[in-house]
């Protein structure tokens, strides 16, 4: 067993920062962290570090000085050389969003562990939590697996189930919960994995399902469908729209056209088979805590 493994962590957004922080608190301090470059944010386009980098910068110097930060635009030869210089035993990926080529996956001698917010092989791809909400799944979960060149394809190390109740939980909330559970599972699994106590289990390809990256057009609701859902004339459509609102906010968003203006549909619930809009936002106006019928 490796008592002090050299780790490299790959991840960029807030969800990845949750995993990184729990790793560090659990005693697994990475030698390097790989995240996206700093980007312009907000209306004023202020250059801002990604959440993972911000989390490291907020540590005291004694901790943050131990962690090298790599922010490549491209996964090129220069970046490969930087990774080779870390002499890493293991890579860990959580919400990095780039597929690592075989040249990079070959670097760590113990392989690469991915943290994926679904019960693989179900919901492979970029939007597992959104897809689970849209499908009305009663449970979802998180999987630790050995990453290979195919998307979310490698053998499974460990899984943990999560309830996905229909009481208004949003994509963001469920994703935060999934990555928090994934971080805890990772801390429990790493010592066993490095001691050779875990036998990876190949995924059942016959059970594999895939998700897609949702676009703005996917969030469009016909005004006639919205009216039918609000009136109770179409309970099935009410459920479909309410799920879409929970799955697609804040991105790519849910919207309709009413009286010639775009209206964002921000929050809703189902009551007695009717869709109740709790928050909407007409184009050019501030959000309102009421539905279209009273706007």
Give the helices and strands, then pairings:
Layout: E1 7-10, H1 14-25, E2 32-34, E3 39-41, E4 46-48, H2 51-57, H3 61-64, E5 68-70, H4 77-84, E6 90-94, H5 102-105, E7 112-116, H6 128-134, E8 139-146, E9 156-163, H7 171-194, H8 223-231, H9 235-248, E10 255-258, E11 261-271, E12 274-282
Helix pairs in contact: 1-2, 1-7, 6-9, 8-9
Q: Mind summarizing the main beta sheet?
A: 7 strands, mixed
Q: From N to C, what is the helix and strand string? A: EHEEEHHEHEHEHEEHHHEEE
Q: Total strand count, please?
A: 12
- What is the name of the CATH superfamily of the largest domain? Formyl transferase, N-terminal domain
CATH structural architecture of the largest domain: 3-Layer(aba) Sandwich
Count of helical stretches: 9
CATH fold category name of the largest domain: Rossmann fold
Backbone structural class: alpha/beta
Q: Which value, in Å, is the CA radius of gyration?
A: 21 Å
Q: Report the principal-axis shape.
A: globular
- Low-confidence spans: pLDDT under 50, at least 5 residues? none
Helix content: 25-40%
- Strands of the widest sheet, in order across it, are 5-2-1-6-7-8-9
DSSP strand (E) fraction?
Answer: 15-25%
- How many angstroms separate the termini? 64 Å
Provide the residue-averaged pLDDT: 91
**What is the domain total for the residues?**
2
- Oligomeric state of the chains in view: single chain
Query: What is the CATH top level name of the largest domain?
Result: Alpha Beta
């Amino acid at each position: 067993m490796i008592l002090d493994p050299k780790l490299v962590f790959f991840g960029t957004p807030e969800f990845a920062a949750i995993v990184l922080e729990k790793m560090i608190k659990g005693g697994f301090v990475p030698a390097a962290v790989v995240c996206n470059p700093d980007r312009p944010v907000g209306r004023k386009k202020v250059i801002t570090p990604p959440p993972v980098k911000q989390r490291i910068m907020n540590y005291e110097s004694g901790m943050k000085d131990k962690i090298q930060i790599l922010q490549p635009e491209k996964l090129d030869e220069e970046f490969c050389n930087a990774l080779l210089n870390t002499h890493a035993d293991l890579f860990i990926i959580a919400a990095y969003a780039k597929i690592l080529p075989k040249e990079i996956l070959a670097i760590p001698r113990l392989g690469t562990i991915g943290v994926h917010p679904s019960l693989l092989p179900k919901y492979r791809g970029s939007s597992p939590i959104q897809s689970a909400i849209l499908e009305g799944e009663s449970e979802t979960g998180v999987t630790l697996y050995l990453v290979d060149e195919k998307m979310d394809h490698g053998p499974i190390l460990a899984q943990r189930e999560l309830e996905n109740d229909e009481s208004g939980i949003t994509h963001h909330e469920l994703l935060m919960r999934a990555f928090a559970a994934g971080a805890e599972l990772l801390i429990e699994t790493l010592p066993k994995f490095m001691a050779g106590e875990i036998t990876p289990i190949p995924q059942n390809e016959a059970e594999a399902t895939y998700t897609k990256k949702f676009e703005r057009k996917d969030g469009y609701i016909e005004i006639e469908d919205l009216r039918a859902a609000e009136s109770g004339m179409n309970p099935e459509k009410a459920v479909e729209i309410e799920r879409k609102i929970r799955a697609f906010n804040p991105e790519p968003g849910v919207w309709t056209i009413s009286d010639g203006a775009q209206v964002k549909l921000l929050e809703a619930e189902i009551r007695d088979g009717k869709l109740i809009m709790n928050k909407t936002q007409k184009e050019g106006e501030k959000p309102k805590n009421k539905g279209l019928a009273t706007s």
